[in-house]
Each structure stands twice: as structure tokens, then as C-alpha cells.
Amino acid sequence: MITHIQGKLTEKNPTDVVIDCQGIGYRINISMHTYSQIPDNENLRLYTHLQVKEDSHTLFGFSSLAEREIFRLLISVSGIGASTARVMLSSLTPKQVREGIASENVTLIQSVKGIGLKTAQRVIIELKDKVLKVYDIDEVSVLKSNTNKDEALSALEVLGFSKKQAEKVIDKIINNQPEANAETLIKEALKNL
Predict the structure, then answer these.
(1) In contact, 105 and 92? CB cutoff 8 Å
(2) Which residues are within 8 A (CB) of 58 and not within 5 positions of it... i.e. 6 or more apart?
(3) Residue 143: its pLDDT value, please?
(4) What is the CATH number of the domain that holds 45?
């Protein structure tokens, strides 16, 4: 019903903003990702999703159409409500969520507070085909980066590092250098372990 709101930014918090649109102030719930994308200038436009419940009407705002689309995909999954989807988009960028689903990275999805193993698996099962189709992600490229990560993890385990600790470090490196090969991942990880 309300697809976007544009107006004067009157209040900015990590969890919500207030936009004055011709004298009416709209409180819009946002993710940390959107918060980091919002400039401090007065004029602001957010893409929105209106959630209508029996006892409330809640607006969720997004800095990009892509983030709103990921949010809508997430809330279509049984067991994922608007709050959980917002937490996911606060913990991970929309791109990380997309790629995590496409590459069936249960660990990444499960790393979000409040998401257990079964819910993470359900998100992947229900959304993988949609994500691959909507974003036209090539499964080969997803598997390639996953192979580099697996090779690096395997090597670090052989060197005596715990898998969990090594995986955290490697995930951070991949976020900063998505094109890094296995050798680069291992070298960077060794500096941080």
C-alpha cells in the first residue's frame, strides 16, 4: 500500500527513523544496514513495507529496493517474522543474505541471533530457487568462492586451528575481499588467528 516515503528526516536512531512528510511524521523501523546507508542530510527517501496486524500497522523502511525484496522473501518463510528478518538484515548485508542462501551456507544464516539450525535450513530450502531466479546468480560462481573457503578452512584445520575460529576469520576476509583465492584467504587468516 505505501511503497516509499520521501520527506524531511527529523529523527534518526539505529532501529528507526521519523520522516516528516508534509506535516505528518512517519515512524519507520529500519535495519542497521539501512541506518548505515542513510545520509545525515534532511531530505530522505526510503522504500517501505507496511505490515498490517490485528493490533498494529508497522512500517519498515529500506535504503534500497534490493534490501526490501530480501526482507519480503525472508518474511515469506514460515517461522521468520518481520523482527527476525530485520535482525538478519542488521547482522548481514542484503548481498550476504542472498549469497548465503544461494550457496546453502547454513552456518552464515545460523550466525544471526535467534536463528537456529532448523530455521536456517528452512530459509535456504524455501528461498534458494527464488534467490537464484530473481537475482540471476550463477551457481558456479557461488560454488567457486565456497570451494576457496573450504580449501582454506581445511588447510587451517590441518595447521591446528579450530574450525569455528578459523571460519569466523575467513568469513570476515571474504566480506572484505570477495574475490580472494584460497592462498590469500589462508595468508590473511594466519595474520588474524
Answers:
(1) no
(2) 29, 50, 51, 82
(3) 45
(4) 2.40.50.140
pTM: 0.67
Please give the residue range of the domain that contains residue 38.
4-62
Please classify residue 26 by burial: count the beta carbons closer than 10 Å to its beta carbon, then call 0-12 exposed, 13-18 middle and 19+ buried.
middle
Enumerate residue ranges in the chain where pLDDT < 50. 139-145
User: Do residues 103 and 146 touch, judged by C-beta distance below 8 A?
Assistant: yes
Looking at residue 134, its pLDDT comes to: 67
**CA–CA gap between residue 155 and residue 149 (Å, rounded):** 10
Q: What is the pLDDT of residue 9?
A: 93
Q: Do residue 21 and residue 55 come from a single domain?
A: yes
Show Cβ contacts of residue 35 under 8 Å, excluding neighbours closer than 6 positions. Answer: 12, 13, 14, 15
In the chain, the number of structural domains is 3
Judge whether 36 and 64 are in contact, CB under 8 Å: no
Q: Which of 164, 156, 165, 157 is nearest to 186 (CA)?
A: 156
What is the pLDDT, as a whole number, of residue 59?
94
* Same-domain check for residues 110 and 168: no
Residue 140 confidence (pLDDT)? 42
Q: Which phi-psi region, left, alpha or beta, contains residue 49 (left: φ > 0; alpha: ψ -120 to 50)? A: beta
Count Cβ atoms below 10 Å from residue 69 Cβ, excluding itself.
19
Grid cell, residue 160, equals: 591446528
